[in-house]
Design goal:
mainly alpha, 277 residues
């Protein structure tokens, strides 16, 4: 009994430490965004600004095209999420319903591909986009985001498909429905929560992505929001801390809101994948 209690206390302590590790930097970011210059340079910084101001936000919008960059990020994220879901849904259905050696090999490849570092794939992707004349374009960036999001979208949707009873599809087949009709009319409506969660996760991933956008987008009018944030850092590495914190806070809000909405659905999709029908 004592061992069980001590184990639970240790688990809660570890969870609390992890939450503090995640939350404290974000709270410090918010505090910095509202601090005036004299507090930013203080030798004794405080968590709560003594004289909060919105000047950092005004300066951030004056110095950089944040709204245009946010629009580029929104187009790239929405396009990547939509295309990834449209491709992953039928593929996940085949992988879940036809458990052949090829399907198992594809599932294993999906899992292994998530371990590939970004540097390993950026050169081949760059060469492909160069041949397609899609370098320095938002459509080219969308293609890269789709390639990067598709493995996780597949893995996630396979779990949802396996949670749908095959008997429903068998009943539809008895009534004369074909494969496509069954997928569209029977399976897809039941997969709606998983499709929404997968699309939103792909959206958050693309919205926050930095490395691909930095390499593939050159002109300022094509750059996404994470890349524009680096413009607040001077050539000598000195950051304009107040406006940078304000812009970073605004850039973080959409992904936080979206993830807060879908976190339960993501957990449900992961658990569904662990259930055997």
């Amino acid at each position: 009994m004592r061992t069980s209690t001590a184990g639970r206390v240790g688990q809660y302590a570890a969870l609390l430490a992890y939450l503090l590790f995640l939350v404290l930097p974000f709270l410090w970011l918010i505090s910095t965004a509202f601090k005036p210059p004299r507090e930013l340079g203080s030798l004794h910084p405080t968590w709560i600004p003594k004289d909060p101001t919105l000047a950092n936000f005004r300066q951030a919008f004056d110095e950089q095209p944040l709204l245009h960059a946010a629009l580029n990020s929104l187009i790239a994220a929405l396009g990547a999420a939509l295309i990834a879901v449209l491709l992953a849904t039928p593929m996940a259905y085949v992988m879940a319903r036809h458990r052949t050696r090829l399907a198992r090999a594809a599932t294993g490849w999906v899992v292994v591909s998530q371990a590939f570092p970004l540097v390993l794939v950026i050169i081949p992707l760059f060469l492909v986009l160069k041949n397609l004349r899609l370098i320095n374009s938002v459509p080219g960036l969308i293609m890269v985001y789709v390639v990067w999001a598709l493995p996780f979208a597949l893995w996630m949707l396979v779990g949802y498909v396996r949670a749908v009873p095959p008997e429903l599809e068998e009943a539809a087949a008895v009534d004369g429905a074909g494969r496509v009709r069954t997928l569209v009319s029977v399976t897809a409506p039941l997969l709606a929560p998983g499709i929404v969660a997968t699309a939103l996760f792909a959206f958050v991933t693309a919205w926050n992505e930095f490395f691909f956008a930095l390499v593939l987008l050159k002109t300022p009018e094509k750059q996404t929001l994470p890349v524009v944030l680096t413009h607040f850092i001077g050539a000598e590495g000195v950051a304009d801390l107040g406006p940078l914190a304000a812009a970073a806070f605004l850039a973080t809000l959409p992904s936080l809101v979206v993830f807060a909405v879908i976190q339960r659905r993501i957990t449900g999709g992961m658990l569904a994948g662990a259930v055997k029908s």
